[in-house]
Amino acid sequence: MKILKxxxxxxxxxxxxxxxxxxxxxxxxxxxLKNIRCLICQGQSVYDSESEFAVSIKLxxxxxxxxxxxxxxxxxxxxxxxxxxxxxxPKLNKNTYILWLLPLLLFLTGGAIIYKKISxxxxx
Length: 124
Hints:
Elements: H1 2-34, H2 52-66, H3 71-82, H4 97-123
Helix pairs in contact: 1-2
């Protein structure tokens, strides 16, 4: 009877740890998928998309997580295959300077135009 209780306890503990591991993998998978752009459905993440491309990326990310790769390694794999544009939050490098600097340039240009209009109206 004691042996049966021990087996039951061991079974419950291992089952719980597997569930915990699956939950962690699902959270990591969802985080990664929300940061990958669907190349078919412009403006949607792979997480939100149901296109064939998104389904294949979901399978790839799931497989890579099961292989033990971490988030950074999965992003590197995806970027190597599809380029920097596929990630919503790309790293700053020579290919992505324009992505990081364009909003700042637009803001400064818009501010200069507004300032010029206001100062012109004040002179009259």
